Amino acid sequence: MTTSFFADKTHKTKPRYVYIGRRDLNSIWYPQNVIRNQKYNILTFAPLVFFEQFRSFLNLYGLIMACTQIIPSVRVSPLYTYWLPIGFIILIGMIREGYDDMKRVYRDRELNSQKYILLKANGQKEEISSSDIKVSDIIIIQKNQRVPADVVLLQTSDKSGSCFIRTDQLDGETDWKLRIASTLTQSVADISVFITDKNASGKIYAEPPSLSIHEFTGVLSWRADEPLTAENTLWSGTVLASGEATCCVVYTGSDTRMVMNTSKPRAKFGLVDAEINTLAKLLVAAGLTLSITMVILEGFQGSWIRELVRFLLLFSNMIPISLRLNCDIGKFVSSWFIQQDKNIPGTVVRTSTIPEELGRIGYLLTDKTGTLTQNVMVFKRLHLGTVSYTNDDRTDLSNILTEHSRTATIEASESQQPMSSTSRTRSILRKTESMKVCEAITALAICHNVTPVFDEETTARTVNSIDDENHSHGFASDTPMTSTTSLHTTDGMGSMELLPRKSVTYQASSPDEIALVEWTESIGLTLVHRDLQSLTLKFNSSQQLHHYKILQMFPFTSETKRMGIIVQDEQTNEIIFYLKGADIVMQNIVQYNDWLLEECSNMAREGLRTLVVGRKVLTSAQYQAFEQRLTKARLQTTDRNRYINEVVGNLENDFELLCVTGVEDKLQDDVRQTLEVLRTAGVKIWMLTGDKVETATCIAKSSRLIGRDHDVYIFKQVGTREECSQEMNVFRRKIDPCLIITGDTLQICLSFYEKELMELIINCPAVVVCRCSPTQKASVVGLLKTYGNRGLRVTAVGDGGNDVSMIQKAHVGIGIVGKEGKQASLAADFSITQFSHISRLLFVHGRNSYTRTAQLSQFVMHRGMIISIMQAIFSSVFYFSSIALFQGILLVGYGTFYTNFPVFALVLDQDVRPEIALLYPELYKELTKGRQISFKTFFLWAFISTYQAAAIMYGAMIKFDDDFIHIVSITFTALIVTELIMVALTVRSYMASANVCRRGVKFQLLCPFANHFQISFRFGISPIMGFYMGRDADYINLMFTTRHSQISPNPIQTASVSKAHAILNLQINIFFLTEIN
Prior knowledge:
This protein is α+β, with helices and mostly antiparallel strands.
């Protein structure tokens, strides 16, 4: 057996033959069954972390500048001046990455060390870790235990061979899934015979490892061949919800479905980050230009290349390497605020790097079912062609069912008594009318994949002999409360009695099916038992049971858009094929009629989801021939699904149309108000749904996605270039219309006129795309990102697995935890619990995150520009010499200790109160223009930096020419205080922000300058500043007083501080006058 992973890739590309219980017969190498989510190991941690850190332009620039300091001839400051900041940033990054990876290691270790029972020869059992499981092993999985590998189900504790699993960690769906053991192995008394008896040689043929969790092609060979499908498998990561399962391992480790479907999420890069990168490159260009200018003005004297490098180092502070760290901290705080907001409980931020993107949303694409609606289905209408029934007619329907349950007795009595021809005719007509209703209701109660699950504490009282009844109908006494534990017969007619029990729970993959079964129960026909081979219905009025044998099941798929079941009535031995599905599919299967499409359209206009139900009675010969062809198709190992669909398709014709059902999906709370405020805020909303045009149109209007005054244009079905051109010309002549188009039509039009069509519909007030597949949803998102306004972001909102592709494709993905599970929520950047939370998420948190990030990033740039310009002025005064103005701890502390606390006050700032932001959504429209950070604001900050630097430097040199030797003390003091005041001027909300600013100023200035001055917060610098700041001036007014009475200050230091104070007052007064003007 090959043991090297690098030498053998056969396990990935070729089908495999797995010998049940005989790991020693494996002929090729299979991966170890371990979960490994960690990113690093001991050897790769440092190199990979360094690589990730220095992929950032700012970090790489800082590293290059620090490395040049190693050369003595170009060194301008002590080594720690450059190495300490870059080292601190890298250290923070390494600690963060190391902490996150250690958490992954512990989680992996916990999963890999979970214990499972390994079945050995002669029925012996051994407890082993998950990581020790190999392909071919027979393992026993207990209830509520995680499935450790991809396995084929051999046996279950239920005699019917069925069990339930939870798949929410695999596909996000919360409904339990039914799984079925192979009939060849379920009946084996001792499954260890495959290990003990060397001649038993049970073998499983399995396809190569695949991504598909809904399909599996395999064959189990032992005494006979039996096809295996996904219903016979348990995938790794699922949880056994009932009973005990004995399984054979077929895929391990990296070959499992769960690992193959686990991909690293695409790192999303925000628009603000891109804008900051552009401005950072401008700063690099400015620093280089300034350095070259200095060398030119110096006249290229001496070693001018060395001087150029030294100037580059002196001006490197213009590019703040702490910018990325500051912005990351700001984003983390914004994400924390979102999760702590009690007005939107349950919100989870899964991507903390893009909260500011919520402030730039211009296009919102939403699913319908479960997103705008609750995905809570309520049965509304049953249409039989000639008559329609609603929930108001339940009494009439119950009476018809009651009469039908007595039919057998009535017919028996009528056969013994003569009756007139008139009364017999009326009876026949009455029966015919009632039979239509009964057949339709019976079809709804049978044609589904619903299983009733009762509480485990439910008990039953035997009336005649429950065991005999169970065995006569193939029921198992240990079936997990899904059936006969509560069925009791009292006579030969099959009447029964139930003891009081807790409410039944229906398990199904679709809420539509549960709604139909619950409705049939409400009118008197209850599903009381369902297993692999049979189902039982009970007439509530007479307690009479009807038993059906399940011969075949054809589950619903998105490709076929229908589901079917073939049953045999045990009372009449009649074989019936029931089928239900979408009208677009069923209209070609049922017999000709003149009302189906019209009634489906009428129901769709009412916002109802429609299903067409039909049936076909099969003769015994027909079914036998069909079964032989189907068995042969299921044994195919290539293109199995195609062969099966062909065989079933040959039987799906000439069906009797029974009824059309209408189910309503209720709107979510406050959907109308949310859509209206989003539209007022300038957000264009598109609805992408798989429903038909009429249903989608009705929901769009009822939810006010389409306003009452909007003109609606429904794009006709097209197939050629000419038809596309004609429809586009008609649509072009409309004035500001809302567009409704099907996914197929959109795809055809895009293939001919992609750019022209997108330019037409990009500005529509609302767009509804119907009959839209998951792939088409993702492509629509991609088109909006390509052709939409580059300054606006695209967000996608959904709640189901079919929405994951568009959520991941969008700039911002928002998932809703709903009835369909958590798959969309887990794949999204932000997870919410209901659609109405979007307004607060965008208008409050999106606004705050965007404005804070813009302010913080530009202020950090300003902080670097002002000190670099001061350095340039200083060098020019000293004949363009490359001498540092500030050295050592002053330069390091300027960007960290001295100014960090007040800068973080910007992270807590807000320009508009939440109540105002929600009350006036028009404010959000202004925000999406992107004016918070732009070239205009950047150059304004650059002008302020130049002005302040010049005021400080030239003011110090002109006014205090006699004390020029103390220029460092004077200018640095004025610089620090200027920056702190600029923070206070930038902050617009003096609550928590002012507190941080005030305490930070006091702490930072008192510590490093304790021997120079003290600070008081009780007075103002000048009337001008008080006028400029208004009522908030008390928080930021500062005045410096020398501490003559407390210490014996150095006269030179006291003079330096007093002079700095004078320069600062002069500069601030001039600055405020400029601002006011």
